[in-house]
Amino acid sequence: MSSCLIAKLSHYIDLSSDDCRLLERLEKNEREYSAGTDVHTIGMEVSHMHVVKSGWLYNYLDLPDGRRQIVRIHHPGDVLGLPDIAYNDASSTLRASTDACLCPFPKSHMDEIFVNAPRLTALLFTIAVRDQVVLIDMLRATGRMSARERVSYLLLDLLARLRVTNKEITDSFKLPLNQSEIGDTVGLTNVYVSKTLKQLQSDGYISLDNTQVRLLNEDAMIEMCDFAERYASIDTSWFPA
Amino acid sequence: MSSCLIAKLSHYIDLSSDDCRLLERLEKNEREYSAGTDVHTIGMEVSHMHVVKSGWLYNYLDLPDGRRQIVRIHHPGDVLGLPDIAYNDASSTLRASTDACLCPFPKSHMDEIFVNAPRLTALLFTIAVRDQVVLIDMLRATGRMSARERVSYLLLDLLARLRVTNKEITDSFKLPLNQSEIGDTVGLTNVYVSKTLKQLQSDGYISLDNTQVRLLNEDAMIEMCDFAERYASIDTSWFPA
DNA sequence: CGCGGGCTTGACTCACTTCAAGTTGTGTGG
DNA sequence: CCACACAACTTGAAGTGAGTCAAGCCCGCG
After folding, report:
1. In this predicted model, what pLDDT tens digit does every residue of B211-220 receive, in sequence order?
2. How many Å does it take to go from CA A56 to C1' C29?
3. What's the pTM value of the predicted model, to 2 decimals?
4. β-strands B212-215, A48-54: how paired?
5. Cα-atom radius of gyration of chain B, to the nearest Å?
């Protein structure tokens, strides 16, 4: 019974036993969601945050006419709901992309961490701003890059994130998103995602086998879209002792 | 000698005198930058964060071929550099858009706040995630909206932010960005920004007089681009006492 | 008076969208 | 084991929103 949350956070700092006790409290309960169901909907009052135990999920926002933007994709060990701390109502819809298991905990458990564990607070704070930097990178990609650069960026980003918790991953992973979802993430239509993926294949950048994606020339892809790795290490030097 | 930082933060919670003392320490020093100069450049090692005392600034990132994305615009009272807390090196370039006065303070002053002022920590945390929500909104606009919607979104966003500290602002403000900078913010070319602004004027949404922007029908603009106000109030109910 | 940066405008181009008609794969029921 | 339903993907043709290029304008400034 190892916790993916503790696994993910230990990647960055050594956790004291007090810290671990506080974190375990966040994973006391759990709940299953099947693929395609919504955990909460935009505008809904949310009192709980979640830790992802298994599965992939994503947050998205709709426009009134049905256009959609996926803004964040989540993997096991991620803490969900930090952005909603600032507001009573959910600022986006959270959907399970695959069957998923989540651990809900009340927002109010956060204040206990703030009061009792400054070092852990600093880490959560840092992860929140790290996510902000990642969003900034996505904004740059969406605002200024071509279709092939954007799709490449997304694949590189997902691979980099999966590597943090799974050292065995080398150059391929299973991508449980269909082409409409990929398009909604990078700001393209499903049709053009299909054409772009075909092109990336015929140019020798990637290979696709059903849902398995393999990056055949990661360095060239990184060069093509000026990808920046943001997950491997963060600055913990200023943290309180 | 009133502090815009304290003014901005008091908008959300009552600050204790201890809190104010900690905050005043952040504004002890100050430094002037003239319009167009860079405070720091992407990749540079940054040990300091800043409070904006006066002027407008923005953060941007370049692509290798010269394309550029502006990712955040700053006003007096803003705390700059939170995203860089996670990394040793600046993740974007910070440029003064007008002549500006900044108060630099070392990153390490933050840990003192984390240890001694949990309530203030919670507020800074909340502001960081509020900024994340704003970035998410911008990502949605950039990824899924048309030129006129994006430009409208930017104008509404700037107006909403200026209103937080300046109650007198009603429907107009001075915009110290040229059309290339507006384009780099919303992902358009300077030429198309010009055409879009002309169109918004002839459709009666806005009027422009040199750098003065007036929103003639704010409700219709909000409706057009499904704008969400994120600055007026945040959830402070869960904060430690 | 001339210079230069920022803005405007029009003609042309193109990356991506839209629409529509297949194809493929997969689960389901008879 | 086949039939068929359905969602996901593919492919091509046509359309369009925004980009590119280029010329001209406006205006503050040396």
Report:
1. 999 999 999 9
2. 32
3. 0.95
4. unpaired
5. 18
